[in-house]
Design goal:
This protein is α+β, with helices and mostly antiparallel strands. It is built from two helices and two strands; from the N terminus they run E-H-E-H. The longest helix is centred in the middle third of the chain and has 12 residues.
Amino acid sequence: MPRLDENIAFVPVQLAILTVSDTRGEEEDTSGKLLVERATTAGHRVLKREIVPDDAEHILRVLQAWIA
C-alpha cells in the first residue's frame, strides 16, 4: 500500500474494528472483514473485532471496555 511520504518511517498501529448492525453476523460483515484485511496487509495489528446491535448502550459498553 503506498504511503504519502516515503521519507517518513512507517509506524504500525493497533486498532479495533466495531461493526454496528442489527442484521449482520461475522459471515455477512463484509466491510468489517475488508477493514481487517486492509489493516493487516498494511502492517497494522487488529486487536479486537466485534459486531454489536444498533443500541447506544451496548455500543457504549463495548467502547468503554476497549478503552479500559
